[in-house]
Amino acid sequence: MPKTMTAIDEFAVKLANFVIAKRWLIILATLMITVGVASGARFLTFSNNYRDFFSEFNPELQAFEDFQNTYTKNDNFFFTIVPKEGDVFNADTLALVEELTNEAWQIPFSIRVDSPSNFQHTYAEEDDLIVEDLVKGAESLNADELAEKSQIALTEPLMRNQLVTADARAIAVNVVVQYPQADPFEVPQAVAFARDLRDRMIEAHPDHEIRMTGVSMLNNAFQEAGFADTTEMIPLMYLLLLVLMAVTVRSISGTVVTLLMIAFASVIGMGAAGFAGIGLTPIALSAPTIILTLAIADAVHILITMRNSMAAGMTKREALVEAVRVNFLAVMVTSLTTAIGFLALNFSDAPPFWHLGNIAAVGIVVAWAMSVTFLPAMMSILPVRAPKPRIETGESFMGKLADFVVKYNKPLFYGLGGAALLLIAAMPRIEFNDQWTEYFDPSIQFRQDADYSNQYFGFYPIEFSVQSPGPGGVSEPEFLEKLDEFTAFLREQPNVTHVYSLTDIMKRLNRNMHADEASWYKLPDDRELSAQYLLLYELSLPYGLDLNDRVNIDKSATRVTVTLSNISTTETKTFLNAARGWIADNAPDYMKTTVPTSAQVMFTYVAERNVASMITGNIVAIVAIGIVMMIALKSFKIGALSMVPNTLPILSAFGAWALLVGTVGFSVAAVASVSLGIVVDDTVHFLAKYVRGIREKGYDRAGAIKYAFETVGYALVVNTVVLVIGFAYLATSHFKMNADLGLLTALAITFALIFDFLFLPALMLRGSGKWIADTKNDHTTGDKNDAQTQAAQ
Amino acid sequence: MMHKRKPRSSRLAAILAVLTLGYSLISPVTWAGEAEDKGLEIAARSDRSDTGFGDSEVTAVMTLTNAAGATSTREMYFKTLERASEQVGDKSLTVFVTPRDVQGTALLSHAKILEPDDQWLFLPALKRVKRISSANKSGPFVGSEFAFEDFTSTELNKYSYKFIGEEEFDGMKVDVVERFPLYENSGYTRQVAYIDQEVYQTRKIDFYDRKDTLLKTLTLSDYREYDGVWRAHTLTMQNHQTNKSTTLSYGDYTFKTGLSDNDFDKGVLKTIR
Fold first, then answer.
1. pLDDT attached to residue B29
2. Kind of pairing, strands B128-134 and A128-133?
3. Are A728 and A788 within one domain?
4. Are both A502 and A515 inside the same structural domain?
5. Is residue B3 part of a domain?
6. Domain count of chain A?
7. In terms of Cα–Cα distance, which of A617, A614, A503 is closest to A550?
8. CA nearest B4 in A: which residue?
9. pLDDT at residue A480 above 90?
10. Residue A322 belongs to a domain
11. Does any domain span residue A210?
12. Domain extent for B168
């Protein structure tokens, strides 16, 4: 046995003896630390701002913040109102809209309310310019008046298909809110008020469907999805673990202690998050589930070794010391690589992944520390029956599997290698899709409302701050002409439901100023005239309905808002590229700086941003994990070679996903480093046994493979099953990004086991295996007792 | 594991409830209407402090600042004609000097008490006078944080009043008076005015929006006296919700320049240069 191994073994034995001797102290210390760190959970808040998905360095976020500082924030509530039958231009529906419009000013933090009711209708009457609400006193409108309102609303470009559908089936009220962002309860407070308002409206006008969407509801949905996940998923996860523990450990004490240990590990992880002041997103909230999944393996290894040692005749105390000694290094190495994989998430552009990575890493390290302190301390106190020697069932199957792999090593090597390459070749077919609405499970109210609303109105706004030649330049006729061309171009694009442009207001004012003659519905051809129209118009607008959110303060730029229907990220990209192309080809120089921006633009590129930033993260993870592998396997060459069976299955998983599912949200960026940290564990165990089979047992390569299968095969299967169940369980999350992350990781872990069993041995039987077998000075993570090792793994 | 914090708002509400209760216990018993009468009295004293100014002319520079810190200016001049009766509002004429595009555009306003003001706008580019028929007085004035009603003469009878108490403001003893708009279509539920006790001038006004949250604060400073008539020369309006602000800086006032009703007739608008 190599010297360092002895040193580590000695340390582990000393540690185990110390822990058992001072068990009450250890337990007390564990409890105190847990309570102390977990107390940080009181600072935890649910994030309710989609901006939390973007780091402050995200260029799309920066552009959007600038935009919003120039105009207004565009957080909003969007009420879609649909009468049970008929069109919306009836007294009852319009009365509803009028009431809702008035009441909506009471929504906390609201700064503006727009609807067909308070639309500032302008018209001429001799030399008067009349500016008034389109609908006032809706209940007493007669048929003629209703028809007139209908005609005005449906022909008004600012309203048609934005606040009322062209077929008049649905009508909308949009409420702009500006949160001071001083208190995490601002959004829930506004949402609660708005929901109550909606309920009151439905009660007063029962023959209507009213659904709420908008950025505020989206933000609130992040919180509600996170909350639903926490309250529904985590308890079930514990139940699942109970079953798994019962099957693998077959000891009440062991199950109880393990449950305590993983519960402590996750509350410490979350408590630490609280102290760090993290706003919890559904992504970060998947951390407890992940910690549970990963932490259980540590405990299972130690408890199984202990059981088997007792079955072999050791006393409980001896068995405990032995279990710690045998597993100390392996548990440490596997915890370390897993933690590295998670810590690499800090390279992501999205803060929720930093949080997930850090919380999970804390939990993993804590679980490891507890598995060699708290766990033995507790087990030394609790009663444990010495089991009867177990009838080994796995070995015969594992032995046969080993024979099979050895026999068919060549077809397996080329077959699997070829399959992997084919799958990897399919990787580029993965399409990113980050549609906010589809982040949410249909059980989340927001998703239902968004799906409903999307039947009538567009959903995703894209903003342009169109630059004019200089201060006051928005009145320049040449600029207005260009703006009008741009507007017309935008309206022709597929999936565009509405375009809000200053040119429509200018044309209308010009007509109003010329006694409402239709022939004057065109842009004014004089800069001063336009400027004076705008001045007149601004003087006539009521509180909250001003142009400040449409024209910047020195009137050098105006805002064009395009609304897109609920389309995929790829379709959005097509639109954005078309708009950029038009600007590049047609815009005068001063207008060329105009760029699209909005939350939707941010989400459109969030996948690219995160994939790009995670490339560095993955490289760091591969290098760091590779170094750990080299140390663990005590060989530079084996450590380096071990990365092959680890990266191939992960890449293949991406390829398989591309073929089976096709689209993925930006959480995919996190999968590579996380799964790498997890799947290397299997390789560590397998290679360690293989090398030891050759060097210490004197087997040939085939023999060493069989030895590795028989000693660790069963444990690897159990381990993989636990991990796959744990990660696949994330698919039940109400949040699609968690589901993608979980399923893809589960797929990668499954592939990793297949590769470790079928490809790695074949690889060993080829040139490289001989090369490893011949490598001098290679030592293994091993121990003296085969039976125990096998059981431990 | 997850501790949902008690909403701060409800905590705040509890604190407020305790404070209000406590205050009501220690505050002297007031009979109904006393606060209202005192509020009206203070407002009236302030409003009448410049009675008899006759007419005035003044130039002003308006500086707008947005949330990003960018600024933009507009220059204009105002002519005002006092009308002695408190049942009718003053007449005012606002003429824009810059931006150049709107130079010579003139807004004539005959203030009323509870009905919408009569307003006419002369557009030089169109060479026409247009009457603005709009019930809206609460909208922003030329893109600024001021509504037209915020900086033109305040008519006493537009509001009902309530005395709140006394406070220190900027080294002065001030009366704090709440006022509630009596006219329709106001953007405000109430305003809180801080009026000094020495020369009875308004020093600060807090504006509360339709949901009764603080919308903006007007600070009036650089008061100067012209033969017993006080005028603020720097008015700063800070919008607390959008973080935009506007400063209105007046030049020197001239009083009693001989303006008459004839100078505030819509017919003269076209002759303005």
1. 45
2. parallel
3. yes
4. yes
5. no
6. 4
7. A503
8. A45
9. yes
10. yes
11. yes
12. 37-271
Say if the Cβ atoms of A266 and B105 lie within 8 Å.
no
Same domain membership, residue A716 and residue A636: yes
Measured in Å, how far apart are chain A's first and last C-alpha atoms? 19
CATH code at position B70: 2.50.20.10
- DSSP readout, A744-789? HHHHHHHHHHHIIIIIHHHHHHSHHHHHHHH-TT---S--S-HHHH
Contact A643, A622 (CB under 8 A): yes
Sort out which chain A residues have CB atoms less than 8 A from B119's CB and list them.
539
Domain membership of residue A606 as a residue range: 392-429+598-793
Burial bucket for residue A726 (CB in 10 Å: 0-12, 13-18, 19+): buried
Claim to verify: residue A554 and residue A620 sit in the same structural domain: no
Q: For residue range A313-342, what is the model confidence (pLDDT) as tens digits?
A: 888 888 889 888 888 888 888 899 899 989
CB A649 within 8 A of CB A751: yes
Residue A228 lies in a domain: no
Residue B19 maps to a domain: no
Query: What percentage of residues in chain A have a pLDDT greater than 90?
Result: 30
In this prediction, residue B10 carries a pLDDT of: 53
The pLDDT > 70 percentage for chain A reads 94
Please tell me which residue of chain B has the smallest CA distance to A473. Answer: B101
Angle between helices A374-381 and A252-275 (to 10 degrees): 150
DSSP string, A630-698: HHHHT-HHHHHHHHHHHHHHHHHHHHHHHHHT-EE-TTHHHHHHHHHHHHHHHHHHHHHHHHHHHHTS-
Mean pLDDT of A510-536: 89
Q: Do A381 and A399 reside in the same domain of the chain?
A: no
Assess contact for A756 and A402: CB atoms under 8 A. Answer: no
A546 and A610: one domain?
A: no
Q: Name every chain B residue with its beta carbon within 8 A of the beta carbon of A189.
A: 7, 9
Q: Tokens 């940080």 identify what position?
A: A40
Closest chain B residue by Cα to residue A132: B134
pLDDT, tens digit, for every residue of A118-163? 998 888 887 788 888 899 888 888 889 899 999 999 999 989 999 9
Q: For residues A700 and A755, what is the distance between their CA atoms, to the nearest angstrom?
A: 21
A415, A424, A425, A450: which is closest to A436 by C-alpha?
A450
Q: What is the per-residue pLDDT for A709?
A: 86
CB contact under 8 A, A553 and B101: no
Task: Please give the tally of structural domains in chain B.
Answer: 1
